[in-house]
Amino acid sequence: MPLTINEREYEFEGDPRTSLLDFLRRDCGLTGTKKGCDHGQCGACTVLVNGQRINSCLTLAAMHDGDSITTIEGLGTPTDMHPLQAAFVKHDGYQCGYCTPGQICSAQAMIDEAANGWPSFVSEDLAGTISLTPEEIRERMSGNLCRCGAYSNIVDAILEVLEARA
Hints:
- The protein is α+β, with helices and mostly antiparallel strands.
- It has two domains: 2-75, Ubiquitin-like (UB roll), CATH 3.10.20; 83-165, [2Fe-2S]-binding domain (DNA polymerase, domain 1).
- 35% of the residues lie in helices and 14% in strands.
- It has helices at residues 20-27, 72-75, 83-90, 100-115, 134-140, 151-165; strands at 2-5, 8-11, 46-49, 52-55, 68-70, 123-124, 130-131.
- Strands 2-1-5-3-4 form a five-stranded mixed β-sheet.
């Protein structure tokens, strides 16, 4: 069964009980996605499936035939960073870096959710740009834990990307 990951096809022929996280890391060599708690509580394994953020440790690889999966490697590269990656570096939102891939994938999905008007309490200014308060960002990112405590830097990085979109 082919899985589309970062716009490339990977063949899944493994044990049907294999988590998407383990398939990404072990079989695809995409080790940017981290295994933190392996129980869906820390968000280190967050990836985008059809643009929606999920904990890859809680889903089976076999469930994603036909889906478009994006990992941190699919967002940008060290020489061509995604705006969120660059902002995390600028604002020191990565500290040890373990949670960073999940944080960035989650932040990208959060920005896309807000751009699509979900949920309805998101405010939109007159220019049609997305406006999230630091409190809204913290709430929306609450499924991603940072053991180093870089939360304020992470929020600053996300705010910078939102302001640049304006």
